[in-house]
Amino acid sequence: MNDYLDLAGQLIMVRLFGTELDADTDAFLRQYKVRGACLFRQNMVDAPQLTRLTGALRDAMGPQALIALDQEGGAVVRSTWVPAPPSAMALGAANDPQLAREVGAAVARAVRALGFNWNFAPVLDLNNNPHNPVIAERSFGADPDTATRIAMAWMEGSESEGVACCVKHFPGHGDTHVDSHRDLPTVDKPLAELERFEFKPFRIAARGENAASAVMTAHIVYPALDPHNPATMSRPILTGILRERFAYEGVIITDGMDMHAIAHRYGAGEAAVNALVAGADMVMAIGSREAQIETVHAIAEAIRSGVLPLLEVEARLARLSKLAAAHPAGPVNYLTEMDDRALMARAWRAGLTTLGQPRRPERGAKVRLVARADVVSDGVSEAGVPAAAIAAALGRLYEVELVTFLDAETFDWSALPQDGRFTILASTSRRRYGPHARATWLPDLHVALWNPYQALDFDAPALMTYGFAAPAVDAVLDWLAGELEASGCCPVPGFGGA
Description:
Layout: H1 2-9, E1 12-15, H2 23-31, E2 36-38, H3 47-61, E3 66-69, H4 88-94, H5 97-113, E4 118-119, H6 144-160, E5 164-170, H7 191-196, H8 199-206, E6 214-217, E7 221-222, E8 226-230, H9 235-245, E9 251-253, H10 260-263, H11 268-278, E10 283-285, H12 289-305, H13 310-326, H14 337-351, E11 353-355, E12 366-372, H15 387-394, E13 399-405, E14 422-427, H16 435-440, E15 445-448, E16 462-464, H17 470-480
Parallel strand pairs: 1-2, 1-10, 2-3, 3-4, 4-5, 5-6, 6-9, 12-13, 12-14, 14-15, 15-16
Antiparallel strand pairs: 7-8, 11-16
Helix pairs in contact: 1-12, 2-3, 4-14, 5-6, 5-14, 6-8, 11-12, 14-17
């Protein structure tokens, strides 16, 4: 059985539970020959600590180690101290493939310097659903050709710096009303529509010498393709479409199997075997240590019993080895940090977009800033920028009064003093506003610092940044000061010109 366990361990990617590699975890990785680890914000403190951790992981997992993170840009970044990349939709708004390539390369330089060799980006989901709770600005846009052109340029930049990309979430998470971290979504579209829209970016990314190194699966049911199984566990989707029809030869990895769409419906071992049988090469066992051990043993038994034929397992291992060999883990010197910070600032500025005819208060004017009191993480994204930080930034130009709210649906906009102050609403979460806010709030200017669709919630002129990183806020200040024009064009329907 030990031989089967050694094979099984190489087919999983695990989560870690601290900021250092403790003795028990080191022993677990070595015992089961685990070769993949995905790190999250809670595993990171600063560059020295993180480089030490990735180095320890490489020692434990060997030269074929795959050390991954989600460094997409915008709100979905894990290493928050490196140059802050714009979100995908900000790059879509700039519509400049060369700029996207430069950003992808800069992201790769930063994470490779920290010891990573695999980045779960870029997102190829096409977002045409204004109520999507989890993708939104993580998408490059809604037009298949334009969004794919920008995304593939980003990917080309990353690969040029030695970091493997993983496009996601196949066959497409852009048109859902449900977050698969919370529940199991369904995309009930006919095959012809999926072919025309959702499939197109992945079909392009799957073929040719510049094909994506890896594809991540979606925990979503597509009744037209498989009425019974989410894509992650669907052989008609992963093998029938991605491998056979699209002729994809790279690595297929699942999304996190601890997400509620899967974990609330299947046991950890059962889910992992189902995904591998469907055609996945690696299972992201991002759960407890007990769930990880259960996963390895279930896969080993599936290999022993022939449910997972040995020849197919060896083909999976060969694809994973090829990925690791082409993108060796281990830190390199980061020599371009200041240049990369300037590049990221330029990219954020290029995506800045207006809606309506926003006007700038005169320098020194009295301004009222309205913003959420809290900026908690939703588990996918990092926490947004605090209201006090926005107020301090605006204070460089204006006399600012800050008003915060806890719940938009109970906040009484009419209670704000009618004193002539120019009122700016700053939106610092991804969640859309509810009916009370939409019907009663009347900002003079809406600064949408995260989800651009929030700009559609109010009949007010808006400035959209597609993210809340410091260079995005700086771009807003430059626009307010009259030093920058917003030249971006929102790349999704509903904004005029998209």
